[in-house]
Amino acid sequence: MEYVIGGILGILIGGAIGFIVERAMKGGAYKTRDEIVEQAKRDAENIAKTAELTAKEEGFRRREAVEKELNSARDGLRNQERQLDKRESGIKDLQDDIQKKERMLEATQQKLVERNKSIEAKEKELDRTMKQGQEQLYKISGLDQKSATDLLLTQLERELKNETGALILKQESELKLQSEKMAREIIGMSIQRYASAHTSESTVSTIDIPSDEMKGRIIGREGRNIRAFEKATGVDVIVDDTPGVVVVSAFDSVRRETAKQALVKLIQDGRIHPTRIDEIVAETQKEMEAFILRQGHEAAQEAGVPNLHEKLLALMGRLHFRTSYSQNVLRHSIEVSHLTGLMAEQLGLNGNLGRRCGFLHDIGKAADHEMEGGHPAVGAELLKRYGEKGEVVHAALGHHDDIRPEYIYTVLVAAADACSASRPGARRETLEKYVRRLEELESLACGFPGVEQAFAVQAGREVRVVVNPQDVSDREAARLCRDLATAIEQSLTYPGEVKVTVLRETRVIEYAK
Q: Which phi and psi angles does 308 have, rounded to 5°?
């Protein structure tokens, strides 16, 4: 360290002397040599002192840094010592706890050994007592061991049968409730997931004519045109005094629609005679066949039922012109197809097969006027003829519960068919009954004393009754609610249950003038 400081001082002094000499040489005009030397010595001494002070300060700083590092190392060692002391103390406490637990375990084992000995002794005493009691019972009853055992087993078997029967009945009741609840949830969820717009249709076929003169042309000379038209189409044409209208009547809706379109074409063409009538009717029949087949294809695609026979598609297309209580049968079949598929998927069954069964269940209605039997039997015969599976055939045959169902899909189709046909608005007759039931429900509630208003809501599943708070108290409101529910049960016929809600509200009104 001292050598370094000396070297630094020498360098600094040499540099200073050189600097002073250079300055002296430059300023020799006004300074003498002695003054320059003297000044250089003084400057060198000052520089040396400054360098010595700087070196000392640097040494002090380094010494302080080293001391700080040493102090930090000492603190770390002290912390480690304290942690080791804590660990050692914890280990000692743990050892003490382990020793205590070992002593407690030994004591517990000793107690268990003693208790086992006591239990063995008691068991031996109990066996001896039971044998003595059995011998006394045998003597008192006069039965031997085998007879007593048989008697006890017979009694036990009878009691077990009674208890088993009670449990079976209980489980059957609970299973029935759970099954009904699950069935309601499945059907409700399926209906909620599939909500289709439904419109009621009217099948009155009327044709507007431009003038009364056209009526005469339709009838023809001595009625030959109208006779030729009725013979070619198989319908009845009614020409009465109603101005501007001709009515087409036929049992077959397809023939009626064909005749309607043919007559419209004849009126537009203006040439009405037997030969032209035959040409127009033949042309319209071909167009109607193509239209029916297209309707069948579109319906099958909408329902998600592929690979149907061409004849089945044509029959399904004919249902476009068939209605049941004003409900279009083809739209009904599509709706039943979706509902059956959804319920089948929720039950873990084949959804595609369910949709196929639902879509084809009413196909017999397309040919029931041409074949003998009801539409379920006719539909089953057609489906069997064109190679459909047994599940599909049986669903068409048994969807009205006419036979014992052999497949689960038949039950699902029957449920979906009932849901589609019975929901409010689906069929005209059902809609009238539905509105009548709501009116009866409200009128029955309004017949009770103190009732101001009654509203049937949620499609008749709930009736809300508003009572006069001055005439009906809280207790009377509770009794009124119970009496109204009883009256609904006794007087009305309804599916499911009806919730009765009685509202008693007190309003205080004052006007600030």
A: -90, 150
What is the distance between the alpha carbons of residues 508 and 184, in angstroms, rounded to a whole number? 44
465 DSSP β-pair partners:
454, 502
Q: What would the mean pLDDT of 410-414 be, rounded to a whole number?
A: 87
Q: How buried is residue 198: exposed, middle or buried, by Cβ count under 10 Å (0-12/13-18/19+)?
A: middle
CA–CA gap between residue 330 and residue 104 (Å, rounded): 85
- Give me the count of residues in the chain: 513
Instruction: For the chain, give the longest Cα–Cα distance.
Output: 166
Whether the pTM exceeds 0.85: the reply is no
| 3 state DSSP class of 200 | strand
Give the Cβ contact number of residue 408 at 10 Å.
15
In whole angstroms, give the CA distance from residue 289 to residue 310. 12
- Is the sign of the CA dihedral 105, 111, 115, 118 positive or negative? positive
Alpha-carbon distance of 292 to 315, in angstroms, equals 8
Q: What is the pLDDT of residue 53?
A: 87
What Rg do the C-alpha atoms of the chain give, in angstroms? 54
Residue 426 DSSP one-character state? S
* Lowest-confidence segment of 263-267, 355-359, 422-426, 451-455 by average pLDDT: 422-426
CA dihedral (408, 409, 414, 419) positive or negative: positive
359 neighbors 334 (Cβ within 8 angstroms): yes
Count of beta carbons in the 10 Å neighbourhood of residue 308: 21
Cα–Cα distance for residue pair 280/231, rounded to 1 Å: 13
304 within 8 A of 405, measured Cβ to Cβ = no
Using pLDDT thresholds of 50, 70 and 90, give the confidence band for residue 176.
confident
CB 214 within 8 A of CB 221: no
Q: Specify whether the backbone of 304 is left (phi greater than 0), alpha (psi in -120 to 50) or beta.
A: left
Backbone angles phi, psi at 347, to 5 degrees: -90, 5
